[in-house]
Amino acid sequence: MNNQAFNSLRKEVSDLNLELLELLFKRGKAVEKLGDFKRSHGLPVFDPEREQQILDGIEHMEHAPYPLESIQKIYKAIFDASKDIQHLARK
Ligand SMILES: O=C(O)C(=O)C[C@]1(C(=O)O)C=C[C@@H](O)C=C1
């Protein structure tokens, strides 16, 4: 790979970072609304069954070149961030 190809891949990664952030933003907005519903219905923030259902769902999806464990870690970090949003809204 030459320098130009390297820089072009860096640009691709930077563009994908923005796309990821946009998706996380949209996801966070939906999570906020789920949190409002749960709060007004006296439901807990943490729903371990729902988290497991999502993790089970990704298990059979294409995740290469990442190992499945890496994808699971990323999703668990996203769940934690969701719970942060919903806990903060209760304060
Ligand atoms: O499905 C919900 O109840 C959510 O609040 C969303 C979400 C998630 O980020 O996917 C967040 C926290 C719960 O523990 C389970 C799932």
Automatic annotation (TrEMBL):
GO biological process: chorismate metabolic process; salicylic acid biosynthetic process
Keywords, sorted A to Z: Isomerase
Cross-referenced SMART domains: CM_2 (SM00830)
Domain of life: Bacteria
Pfam families, per database record: CM_2 (PF01817)
InterPro entries membership: Chorismate_II_sf, Chorismate_mutase-related, CM_dom_sf, CM_II_prokaryot
Domain Chorismate mutase: 1-90
GO molecular function: chorismate mutase activity
Protein name stated in the entry: 3-deoxy-7-phosphoheptulonate synthase / chorismate mutase
